[in-house]
């Protein structure tokens, strides 16, 4: 099956590129660390308000926040490939078309997986250990990676459509904070203004955060877990659909 | 079976621009085929269509015996494509670039490893093979790019301006690789602005202008169509009466007859005439009798430059290509 091997070679290429760009590597590792330390310290008194250990509460939010902003780098990478002509070069080979996109998406998912692992290790140092134990860790990482993959699709579609890294960055920057703060990532809905509570209830980030938070703070909660997978799957279908649509246009 | 067969190929872009207006041509297997034309003539568009990177609007095109639209996957297996801009992944080493290309052509293991070693040797990149290609010179990058199109032993090689932007030495190296590849039986389809090399290497060529083929044939056929040799007469430098001398000389030439055209040039006078060689003694005799001294006299057959000029009304100036070059596949290279 050439689709699988092609995807693997594409994935491998992106991983090499990541490792060989020390600045990119540094920042993609540095970012989650900063988020964890900064947010949990800054908002630690919220814990009193919320009646929980805030570090324990916010870890899920920070893991997701990191995945969200990390996913947006995908689009800028494809813009580089379009501009350099490398995409055309690959398209002139018999390589499976879908593998070109999937290889990139999987490399994004893998990066988010690694970053999340770092956050969880650091969080462990701050006293965070999931109620669900080791299996919980695995479930958290897989869920976040899936989440990252789904959101990478938006950035890829934007990159393919606009062919401008600046635009992708601009849109990502504008979206990240409103979506983060109007979700359950850093705050319980009960303490939000009413209108924001309704936004938060439908915010896709909230669903993923709730599922991971339950894994960390409560245990296995089937309801939040299935809802999160439902929402992420829906996002994945929509964003990957958009990506494929834009990709077809570029390819022809 | 021809390597490339194109019939009434049309490409109209979304904005209504007709880049290719129904062209037809054929490239035989093993041929070194030149595809020439001024900037914006539709050369790159045609190459992109033939290499399955762009969809045609109408017409028929077969490459290596496969229909480019319905059998694109088989076409891709048999062709190598070098774009206008040098395209390599600069984060990867030279070797990794080649291995990636091999992998995408379903080559693996020892076979691929050996093929890559051979190619690195051929393009003289053995020593730099495991260095990041970002640190390569322009010529090395171009050679790596060329090698990367050859990993899977393509039957047909499409090259869009492969030597543009290279220094003369690297250029000569690339041309000699291409010659060797062609001698090994690979069909070469090339666009270039370097007409001397076209004259030397291409067995046949087509000239494209405004999306239409305005001439095709072998270099010698096309040159003989010009129907006249060029005679260049040079006068002594610094002669204060040069102007008057030229007028007098022109008068004599008109009286000689058999001349198609007389043109002023910086060095003296250029004459176009059939069988120019036979005219030279007459010119010398006439000038001698009139006391006009010639510094030089030269007869040359028409060049492809003359052919190009005749069919497109423009001259190709390779040194200007870099500045005015049309964009690549999806735009210009960033670095």
Q: What does this entry look like structurally?
A:
- The complex is a heterodimer of chains A (252) and B (335).
- With 252 residues, chain A is mostly helical.
- Chain A has one domain.
- Helix content of chain A is 83%, strand content 0%.
- Chain A contains 12 helices and no strands.
- Chain A has helices at residues 2-19, 22-42, 46-50, 54-71, 73-84, 86-91, 97-125, 133-162, 165-181, 194-202, 204-218, 222-251.
- In chain A, helix 1 (2-19) packs across helix 7, helix 2 (22-42) runs antiparallel to helix 4 (54-71) and helix 8 (133-162) runs parallel beside helix 12 (222-251).
- The longest helix of chain A is centred in the middle third of the chain and has 30 residues, at 133-162.
- The radius of gyration of chain B is 24 Å and the shape is elongated.
- Chain B contains 12 helices and 14 strands.
- Residues 319-335 of chain B have low confidence and may be disordered.
- Chain B has 335 residues and is α/β, with parallel strands linked by helices.
- Chain B has helices at 43-50, 72-78, 94-104, 109-122, 138-148, 168-183, 195-201, 219-226, 242-256, 276-290, 304-312, 321-324; strands spanning 4-12, 18-27, 32-36, 58-63, 66-67, 79-82, 156-160, 187-191, 204-209, 212-217, 229-235, 259-264, 268-273, 294-300.
- Chain B has 2 domains: 4-223 and 314-324, Rossmann fold; 228-301, Alpha-Beta Plaits.
- In chain B, a hairpin with a 3-residue loop joins strand 12 and strand 13.
């Amino acid at each position: 099956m050439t689709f699988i091997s092609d995807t693997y070679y594409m994935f491998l290429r992106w991983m090499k590129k990541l490792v060989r760009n020390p600045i990119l590597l540094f920042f993609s590792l540095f970012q989650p660390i900063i988020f964890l330390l900064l947010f949990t310290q800054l908002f630690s008194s919220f814990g009193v308000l919320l009646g929980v250990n805030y570090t324990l509460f916010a870890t899920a939010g920070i893991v997701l926040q990191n995945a969200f902003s990390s996913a947006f780098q995908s689009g800028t990478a494809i813009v580089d490939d379009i501009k350099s002509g490398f995409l055309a070069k690959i398209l002139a080979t018999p390589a499976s078309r879908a593998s070109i996109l999937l290889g990139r998406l999987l490399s994004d998912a893998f990066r988010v997986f690694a970053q999340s692992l770092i956050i969880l290790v650091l969080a462990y140092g701050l006293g965070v250990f999931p109620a669900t134990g080791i299996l919980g860790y695995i479930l958290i990482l897989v869920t976040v990676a899936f989440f990252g993959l789904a959101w990478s699709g938006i950035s890829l579609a934007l990159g393919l459509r606009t062919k401008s890294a600046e635009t992708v960055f601009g849109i990502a920057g504008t979206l990240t904070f409103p979506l983060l703060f109007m979700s359950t990532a850093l705050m319980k809905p009960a303490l939000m203004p009413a209108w924001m509570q309704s936004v938060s209830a439908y915010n896709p980030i909230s669903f993923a955060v709730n599922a991971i938070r339950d894994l960390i703070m409560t245990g296995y909660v089937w309801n939040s877990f299935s809802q999160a997978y439902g929402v992420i799957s829906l996002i994945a279908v929509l964003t990957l659909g958009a990506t494929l649509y834009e990709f077809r246009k570029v390819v022809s | 079976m021809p390597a490339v067969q194109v019939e009434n190929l049309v490409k109209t872009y979304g904005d209504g621009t007709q880049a290719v207006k129904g062209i037809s041509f054929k490239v035989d297997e093993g041929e070194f085929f030149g595809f020439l034309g001024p900037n914006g003539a539709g050369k790159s568009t045609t190459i992109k269509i033939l290499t399955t990177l762009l969809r045609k609007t109408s017409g028929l095109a077969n490459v290596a015996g496969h229909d480019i639209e319905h059998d694109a996957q088989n076409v891709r297996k048999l062709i190598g494509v070098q774009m206008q801009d040098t395209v390599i992944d600069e984060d990867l080493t030279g070797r990794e670039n080649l291995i990636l290309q091999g992998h995408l052509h379903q080559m693996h293991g020892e076979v691929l490893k050996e093929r890559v070693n051979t190619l690195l040797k051929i393009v003289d990149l053995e020593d730099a093979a495991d260095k990041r290609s970002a640190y390569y010179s322009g010529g090395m990058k171009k050679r790596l790019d060329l090698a990367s199109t050859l990993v899977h032993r393509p039957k047909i090689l499409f090259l869009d301006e492969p030597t543009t932007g290279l220094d003369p030495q690297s250029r000569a190296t690339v041309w000699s690789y291409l010659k060797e590849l062609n001698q090994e039986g690979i069909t070469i389809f090339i666009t270039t602005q370097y007409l001397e090399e076209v004259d030397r290497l291409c067995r046949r060529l087509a000239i494209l202008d405004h999306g239409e083929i305005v001439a095709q044939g072998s270099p010698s056929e096309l040159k003989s169509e010009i129907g006249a040799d060029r005679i260049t007469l040079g006068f002594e430098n610094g002669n204060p009466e040069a102007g008057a001398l030229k007028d007098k000389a022109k008068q004599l030439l008109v009286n000689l007859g058999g001349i198609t055209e007389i043109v002023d040039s910086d060095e003296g006078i250029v004459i176009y005439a059939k069988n120019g060689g036979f005219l030279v003694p007459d010119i010398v005799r006439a000038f001698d009798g009139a006391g006009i001294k010639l510094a030089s006299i030269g007869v040359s057959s028409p060049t492809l430059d003359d052919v190009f000029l005749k069919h497109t009304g423009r001259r190709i100036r390779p040194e200007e290509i870099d500045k005015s070059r049309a964009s690549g596949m999806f735009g210009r290279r960033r670095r």
